[in-house]
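Example record

The entry below shows one chain as it appears in the dataset: sequence first, then C-alpha cells.
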Amino acid sequence: MVYIKNILIVLFAFITAFLIIEGISYKLLRLPRWGVEKHIYGVKPNGNKTTDIFKPYSEYSNFENGFRVNKRNNAGLPGVTVDTDSSNKFIFLLGDSFVHASQVEPDDIASSVLQEKLKPLKYSVLNLAFGDSDPYLMYFQSIYYSQTYSPEYIILVLPQPYKWALDTRYGELSFSLPSNFGTSSSDGLLTRAEILICNNSSFVQSLNLLLKRKLKESQFFNITMPKESNNNGNTKLSETISAFGNKYGNKFILVSIFEDDDFNHYLEKYCKENKINFHQKDINIPENKINGIGHLTEGGNKILGMFLYDIIKETAND
C-alpha cells in the first residue's frame, strides 16, 4: 500500500511539474505547438522521408529577426488569407526559406504583397515554399498541391544557384512519382503519438524541434562534397527546370533574385533555348537582407512581391 502511495505521489509531482513547464513554455515564452495535420510521402522523393502538412491557422516561430510567433493562413500556408474557391485562379509560389519568409510578419511577406495586388483579379497565391528546400523538392511539392488546386501559373523563385545543394543531396535525378506519392504516414502508432503530443505541448515540441535540428546539423557536417560540383549543379538545375517546363508548359515562370551575372546569363540562355519564361532582378543583396547577410527584410519582401506582380501582369498580357 505504501509502495502504491509513493508511486502516486511521484506521478502527481511529475504531472504537476510538467504542467508548470508547459504553462511557462506556451503562455509565458509563447513557444508554439506543432500544428501538423499529417505527414506525407513523396515530396521528398529519396527514401521514406516525409513532408509536414500543417493545419489552418497553426503557429510557427523564428529567431532571426527577433523572436516572433506567426500564424499560417486558412490553407495552412504562410501569408495572408486566400480564397480557396475552385473558381479562383491559383498561383503556386515555390522556393525555400527566402520565399517562406518566416522572419517577417505574414502580411508583409512577398506572397502576401502579390496576393493583395492580385485579389481584384480573382487570383489566389499559395506560398508552397518551405525552409531547406530546393527546386527538385519544389517540383514534387507543386504536383502534390496540383491534386487539390489547378494552377494558372507556377513561379519558382531562385535566391541562389543551388549548385552545392543539388550535388550533395542527390545522385541521378528522377521525376517519376514514387509509388507512395501523396500518401499519409500518419497512420502508424508512433507517428500518431508524435503528432498528438507535439500538437498539444509546446514544451515537447520545442524538444522535438531541437533534436531534429541537432540531427540535421550532424548530417550536414558529415557531407562529402563531390568533385566538379559546379558543372553537376548546372546540369541538375537544368534538368529540374526542364521538368517544370515539360509539366506545366507556358504556365511555368522561373525567377532569379540573386547576384551572379555569369550564372544568370546561363539561366537566361538556357530558358530562351527551351522556351521557358525567365525573369531576373538583384533582390537577394545586402541592403535587402536582415543585418545585410540574412533573409529578406520586410522591404526586400515588398520588392520581391512587386516584382512578381509585374511579371504576372506582363505574362497575362502576352
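Notes for this example: Residues 217-233 have pLDDT under 50 and may be disordered. Residues 2-28 form the longest helix (27 residues).
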